[in-house]
Amino acid sequence: MPMSSPEIPVLVKRLPHGQDLPLPAYATEGAAGMDVVSAEDVDLAPGGRHAVATGLSVAIPHGYEIQVRPRSGLALKHGVTVPNTPGTIDSDYRGELKVIMINLGAETFSIRRGDRVAQLVVAPVTRGSWVEVDELDATQRGEGGFGSTGGLAALKG
Ligand SMILES: O=c1ccn([C@H]2C[C@H](O)[C@@H](COP(=O)(O)OP(=O)(O)OP(=O)(O)O)O2)c(=O)[nH]1
Ligand SMILES: [Mg+2]
C-alpha cells in the first residue's frame, strides 16, 4: 500500500469563463503537480508568449504557494514552456491564475480550451529575515562562483 501524503486544502473559485472546465488534477497517484487546463484558445507563434487564462482564482493557505511549472512533453516535443518557471502564485493573490507560456519552437503551437498546459505544485514557503552584519564568515568557496569549480568534467576524487 503506498503511503498517502497529507493534502493541503486550497480554496478554488471557477470564474464565469471557466465554469465547465475540470479543476486541476493529478494525472497519477504519485504526481507532484496537478495538470491545469487552458480556458481559452490561443495560437502561439514561434517566439510568441501569452498569459493563458485558466478560469480559476484561488486562496492558498498562509505559509504555502503554488508553483506553476511547465509540462516536459510540451517542452520536448514543441519547445513550448513557461518562461518564468516556477511561476509563483502568492497566498494572498485573488486574481485569475494564469500560465505564462512561450513558444521556443519553430512552428505555431495551438492551445485549445481544455488542453492541459502546465502543472501546479502546492509547496510550503519559508520566509527569511535579514540579520545585517559587517563581516561574513570565511568559507572554502569564498567569492568563487559561476563556474569557479570547473566545467563539465567530473570532480577528481
Ligand atoms: O505564472 C504566474 C505568475 C504569477 N501570477 C500571479 C499570481 C501572483 O501572486 C501574482 C504576482 O506574481 P509575481 O510576484 O511573480 O509577479 P510580479 O511581476 O512581481 O508582480 P507583482 O508586482 O504583482 O507582485 O501574479 C500568475 O497568475 N501566474
Ligand atoms: Mg511580485
Automatic annotation (TrEMBL):
Recorded GO MF terms: dUTP diphosphatase activity; magnesium ion binding
Superkingdom: Bacteria
Cross-referenced InterPro entries: dUTPase (IPR008181), dUTPase-like (IPR029054), dUTPase-like_sf (IPR036157), dUTPase_trimeric (IPR033704)
Reaction catalyzed: dUTP + H2O = dUMP + diphosphate + H(+)
EC number(s) given by UniProt: 3.6.1.23
Keyword Transcription: no
Similarity comment: family membership: Belongs to the dUTPase family.
Function: This enzyme is involved in nucleotide metabolism: it produces dUMP, the immediate precursor of thymidine nucleotides and it decreases the intracellular concentration of dUTP so that uracil cannot be incorporated into DNA.
PANTHER family: DEOXYURIDINE 5'-TRIPHOSPHATE NUCLEOTIDOHYDROLASE (PTHR11241)
Protein name listed in UniProt: Deoxyuridine 5'-triphosphate nucleotidohydrolase
Organism: Novosphingobium aromaticivorans (strain ATCC 700278 / DSM 12444 / CCUG 56034 / CIP 105152 / NBRC 16084 / F199)
